[in-house]
User: What shape does this take?
Amino acid sequence: MFTKALKQSMGLAVVMAALAGCSSTSTTDPVTSTTDSSAATSSAADTSSVNSSTDMAQNLDTVFYFDFDQSVLKPEARAALVAHAANLKASPRSVRLEGHADERGTREYNMALGERRAKAVRDFLVLQGVNSSNLETISYGEERLESSSDHSLNRRVEMK
Amino acid sequence: MGATRSFMGISSRANARLLTLVPKLICVLLFLSSSARAELTIEITQGVDNPTTIAVSPIAWSGAPLPENLNAIIEADLQRSGQFRSIPKADMLSFPKSEADVFYRDWRMLGTEFLLTGQMEQTLDGAYQLTFELYDIVSQAKILRERVDGSASQLRDMAHFVSDTVYELITGIRGAFSTKIIYVEAFGSERFKLMLADADGAREKTLLTSKHPIMSPAWSPDGKSVAYVSFETGRPAIFRQEISTGQRQQLTNFKGLNGAPSWSPDGSKLALVLSKDGNPEIYVLDLATRQFTRITRHYAIDTEPNWTLDGKGVIFTSDRGGKPQIYQVTLASGRIERLTFEGDYNARPRLSPDGKSLVMVHRVNGIFHIAAQDIDTGMIRVLTETHLDESPSIAPNGAMLMYATKHRGKGILAAVSLDAGVKFRLPSQRGDVREPSWSPYF
Assistant: This one.
């Protein structure tokens, strides 16, 4: 059983520990991110259609869900993303990660939450070896709700 | 106490700047299409305990039926303030047109405190002239006589001018009946519109239509422009649009968040949110030089900026303490101060025009309400009884605020007075409406 102090120091550690542990919601890398500064991301040949069918053949999830106020990846998401990472390393393509939040709370804060979630997925894929310049993160906050009645369906990242 | 006010020409007493702005705005309303029937309807859900009773005598007019019912507009304005109750026409013993027709005893018997009369005339060139008088029934005295002129398309504005004048004379508070609102209307996730309407919901018109989300509209302090977030380029970006011409400019194009534009009090800068440097931070954009200055430096989420009245600071939402709370940064020194300490979620701050209250979204027992915190004492008052409340916007007279909420599963606008004594709803007859931005005075 972790003590509170130990939990906090793990939470303050690098992104890898934050993702792997069960600590706070913050998964933001304090070191300046390099992915957002470059302009163009379309580098590799466009093999997106081939890879979608690979995803479908493997029946991989492309939507990942999150708990309330959390941007921590759930075990099933991590499992699917490991497989996605393997596909993306074998056949690189541009990937768009769209982050969302449920409608509770303020709209611009929820934009930031959606971005946190999209970045959590991105950072996990990068840790698995995927080239970060192929991964684009966009947040829609609560602007594109999947469900008006079930909050849990809205707290998601969609991989496209 | 004679005075003349004209929307078309020069007045003997009004502010020259106001007069030149108002005709331009009215020309705009003529040029852009507007629907004849208001889409936003008003449902008053609560008024003050002891409203002031006023009789609005039918305006005397002998011409063809007017295109607008000025009596109805004035009564609705005063009713919507929650501070007035009007005497039904059926109860009136007479319809006085001027002082000679006023029998104070009759009105005292009805419990009336004030009586408003009006006479409408039309000049040879088609302009309308409305002379109106206000009587204090208890003191048995005429306390106001004023005239307002306008064209046929300005009849609603003339009525609102009467409401503003009467409201201010009786309550001592400047009226906001001639102001406007901008809001977002959404049809599922497929169609979004940026809408402009009068503060009573009338004369709505579309400023922008898009297949992509529109967010965070903000009126400029001079009332001529609106800044907002649009996803039309595939990711969120901040745009500025001139209301009279529809001309648009894209102001930001960064990767990541581009959000929450907020105009400085002098209109020269926008505070906004960008996450281009790794996480959401507040930046200030100088609109003349197009230079961005970074204001916050913290790995937490910093968002939803709003300027202080003196333009020297910015209040904002941050979860640097673990949960969203409201902070203030002094621009010159960079000093950061936390403002909210009660409750586990305080966000989307707005300062009242008198600087005495901090209005925000405040979560209590898991429910999101609008609350006002007294700046001096720190005491919080929850203002709303609705749930899932967000996006408060305060009227320029500081008496009311409008916000977004849900009612029967639909997004609606609602309003509440800063003392929480008055409440009304503004549902749309079509889409979900949200994110109201109350105009400044024009």
Chain B touches chain A at residues 189, 213, 215-216, 231, 234-236, 254-257, 259-260, 273, 275-280, 299-301, 303-304, 317, 319, 322, 324, 345, 347-348, 361, 363, 368, 388, 390-391, 409, 435 (CB under 8 Å). Confidence is low (pLDDT under 50) at residues 8-37 of chain B. The longest strand of chain B covers residues 141-150.
